[in-house]
From TrEMBL:
<dbReference type="InterPro" id="IPR010713">
    <property type="entry name" value="XET_C"/>
</dbReference>
<dbReference type="GO" id="GO:0004553">
    <property type="term" value="F:hydrolase activity, hydrolyzing O-glycosyl compounds"/>
</dbReference>
<keyword id="KW-0964">Secreted</keyword>
<dbReference type="GO" id="GO:0048046">
    <property type="term" value="C:apoplast"/>
</dbReference>
<dbReference type="GO" id="GO:0009505">
    <property type="term" value="C:plant-type cell wall"/>
</dbReference>
<keyword id="KW-0378">Hydrolase</keyword>
<keyword id="KW-0961">Cell wall biogenesis/degradation</keyword>
<keyword id="KW-0325">Glycoprotein</keyword>
<keyword id="KW-0326">Glycosidase</keyword>
<keyword id="KW-0052">Apoplast</keyword>
<protein>
    <recommendedName>
        <fullName>Xyloglucan endotransglucosylase/hydrolase</fullName>
        <ecNumber>2.4.1.207</ecNumber>
    </recommendedName>
</protein>
<dbReference type="GO" id="GO:0071555">
    <property type="term" value="P:cell wall organization"/>
</dbReference>
<comment type="similarity">
    <text>Belongs to the glycosyl hydrolase 16 family. XTH group 1 subfamily.</text>
</comment>
<comment type="function">
    <text>Catalyzes xyloglucan endohydrolysis (XEH) and/or endotransglycosylation (XET). Cleaves and religates xyloglucan polymers, an essential constituent of the primary cell wall, and thereby participates in cell wall construction of growing tissues.</text>
</comment>
<keyword id="KW-0808">Transferase</keyword>
<dbReference type="InterPro" id="IPR013320">
    <property type="entry name" value="ConA-like_dom_sf"/>
</dbReference>
<keyword id="KW-0732">Signal</keyword>
Amino acid sequence: MGKEKRLWGTIGVAEMSAKVINYYKCLKGNRNDVLAVFLLCTACADNFYQDATVTWGDQRAHIQEGGRLLTLSLDKISGSGFQSKSEFLFGRFDMQLKLIPGNSAGTVTTFYLSSQGAGHDEIDFEFLGNSSGQPYTVHTNVYSQGKGNKEQQFHLWFDPTTSFHTYSIIWNAQRIIFLVDNIPIRVYNNHEALGVAFPKNQAMRVYASLWNADDWATQGGRVKTDWSMAPFTASYRNFNTNACVWSAASSTSSCGGSKSTDSANNDQTWQTQELDANGRNRLRWVQQKYMTYNYCTDAQRFNQVIPPECKRSRF
């Protein structure tokens, strides 16, 4: 039970019981091995009722289907959003999204990790809406100690409004990997040896939101939100966290140890995950065909001084 204690050590008994009940559902009624529940529970989809809190938007956020689905809406008065109840220090975070169909210009739908405070860390997926028939822009960014400016943007190779697709963030002490339907689109490596800050010391929650940003989101703010199309609705489901839960009260992680602990102490795959040859080929394909902006090639923005991490491998 050493491994199981490490996974669950900072989770209260009541919360654990609720999770076990939920994860039995993932096992489709197989109750023959209680230990299997504990070993699999970080790989099952979380329940929005149990694991998320609607934080703003009044009645514009709705949890449905017994906690498996959450919808966010935006109208001219307000958007909406939610956050995870737990904080995490490293992990794999998956969310299935179906984005706003039709004319979504001016809107931003998000799925991201963030700590709090002026020197916060943040790992972003933002989906920038567009006029009907024009593609969404997937905006990614990484903040460490309050500093970002690490943007890469992409178009998608499918219509993200007709069905659900899975967007994932893998965050360990060595790197951050952004994936779409398990295809890597970006790797951000830890280059602290070059003097580049990396988010590894601040626990983060999972956040999601839908809001109006028509001053910049679509074609640099040239296309505004058409409020006659409101309310705009984005859908989230299968929120999955396979991660180290952080306890602020005891300053410990469910994976063992305290802040700055090497994530390799736990044998979960994401702890040391990097791209294999197939992953590198897929990343090349995405970046060659679908990348629309890369801060590493924007020399004018940085006065011809390219950030040091941009001189290293993109893998």
